Amino acid sequence: MIKIIALNINGIKERSKQEFLNKFLLQYNPDFLSLQETNINNFKKLHSAYLAIINNNIENKSSGTMIIYKKEIELIKIEKEESGRIIRAHFKNVTIVNMYAPTRNEAAANQHLFFLHVLPKFLKANDENTIILGVFNCIIDERDREGIKKKINPQLKNLIVRLKYIDAFRTVNPNINAYTFVSPNGKSRIDRIYIPSKQKRYIKNCININFAYSDHVAVMLELEESVCKPVNKNILRKLNTSVLEDPYFQEEIEIFILNAKSKIYEYQSIIDWWEKGIKEKFKKLSQTYCKNKTKEKNAMKKFHEKCLDQVKIEIDNGGRNLDDYYILKIASINIGGISSVERRQILLNFCRDGNLDIVGLQEVAFHSCSIIESCYHLLANVGPNKNGTAILIIHCLEYSRLLLEPDGRLISIDVKCFTFINIYAQSGKQAKNERNNFLRQTLPAYSVTTRLPFVLMGDFNCVDDIQDRAYIISSPSGGRLYQSVSYGHLVVCFDVSVSTT
């Protein structure tokens, strides 16, 4: 059995508290003791049976963290967060992520960014031997508060759900109201231990323990030792076939097979043709394509991280806070070339009722409309045969750098700190090559002209996810589908947070 304890020690500089902690170690004999709010750079009086990993920031005295572990446990790697709030310790058979989250009193923005950007850097998807524990200073379950106004933190909740972790205490005690911190305003269970859901069967017990020298209660998790045995990931290999549903990859395969078939008669048999002619080439084609797709995803991820870093720097330096940001409400609508006054009035009413700030329109057949322009700037790029695009911008917003594609299928505009690109791609099987050229060449040529992060919207007339072909229409993450204001299409609405400066 393995014992893991999480405890907010509330400072450990006093000699009496250090001595009490050593007695605590002897009494409960944990394999790992994770401390938060330590406020020290070394622990010379630690019990001889244990070693300590310390992460303390001199400037931020309330955010120190420490992992105490038994000497016989093999330590492989340590990662520390610069402010002292996180330690990730990778041991031979288990990884411990000890953290002390910012409180909402320090700055709501700091807590928001901590769970959105900082903590995820120390967590890895599908890591079945990582345990997350510490002081979260927020809740994700209504049962974990009493008489206190702590709000559920959506960033932490989304992170825990996405990584498929479970609350160890709540798993063992689903109906018990127990709290780890008591204040004049009420009680809350902000000290928690999370483990991967696949390790649920190894939980033996999880209880709260009083610690006389702290205003927090300790949490002790007991696990069957099996949870810390390394997982043999080679037992079963899962074949990744998702790339076969990528329309661009399908096109590459079609061209490859077409060329390969033309040379089949150069070989003695079909088997010989496969083994000597195309097997290795097909393998190389698949590997190259997948590597390029991975590079694209990683590049986009780094770009998003860079944007978040910039926001964090500005907030930390006091230049901005959350009040400096507001939500832009955006929609994308294929209007089907509506020409009647009644339907244009319906469009305007829809935009006003939804408090929409920016609206991308496709299949636009008009350059101006007095009804719409009473509330919105109408920037239209009308091409032949109703192939036009347009962007509506609420009058109170300023815009710049308008770009128009000659055929009317693309319009680009800068608003605040974003570039908005609205497109209407070619439709139908006969236009497949034109559509591919538009999406692969024309669209990227316009997107690289901006240094701002851009929002791409419109009617793509194709899918990049097999799920988008389902009979039941579902919205992308964070989006909402509304009844159409034109025939045959629904409206996708979503929000974007932007700076006011």
Tell me what the structure shows:
Its cofactor is Mg(2+); Mn(2+). By secondary structure, this protein is an alpha+beta fold. The protein folds into 3 domains: 2-228, Endonuclease/exonuclease/phosphatase (Deoxyribonuclease I, Chain A, 4-Layer Sandwich), CATH 3.60.10.10; 251-319; 321-499, Endonuclease/exonuclease/phosphatase (Deoxyribonuclease I, Chain A), CATH 3.60.10. The protein contains 8 helices and 25 strands. The strands form 5 sheets. A 6-stranded mixed beta sheet has the order 3-4-2-1-15-14. A 6-stranded mixed beta sheet has the order 5-6-7-8-13-10. Strands 18-19-17-16-25-24 form a 6-stranded mixed beta sheet, with no helix packed on it. α2 packs antiparallel against α6 (270-316) and α5 (247-261) runs antiparallel to α6. The relative contact order is 0.07.
Task: Give a nutshell description of this structure.
With 501 residues, this protein is α+β, with helices and mostly antiparallel strands. The chain contains eight helices and 25 strands.
How does the SSE layout of this entry go?
Layout: E1 2-8, H1 15-28, E2 32-36, E3 50-55, E4 65-70, E5 75-80, E6 86-91, E7 95-100, H2 108-118, E8 130-135, E9 145-146, H3 154-163, E10 165-167, H4 168-172, E11 181-183, E12 186-188, E13 191-196, E14 203-209, E15 218-223, H5 247-261, H6 270-316, E16 325-334, H7 341-353, E17 358-364, E18 376-381, E19 388-394, E20 399-404, E21 410-415, E22 418-424, H8 432-447, E23 454-459, E24 480-482, E25 491-499
Parallel strand pairs: 1-2, 7-8, 16-17, 22-23
Antiparallel strand pairs: 1-15, 2-4, 3-4, 5-6, 6-7, 8-13, 9-12, 10-13, 11-12, 14-15, 16-25, 17-19, 18-19, 20-21, 21-22, 24-25
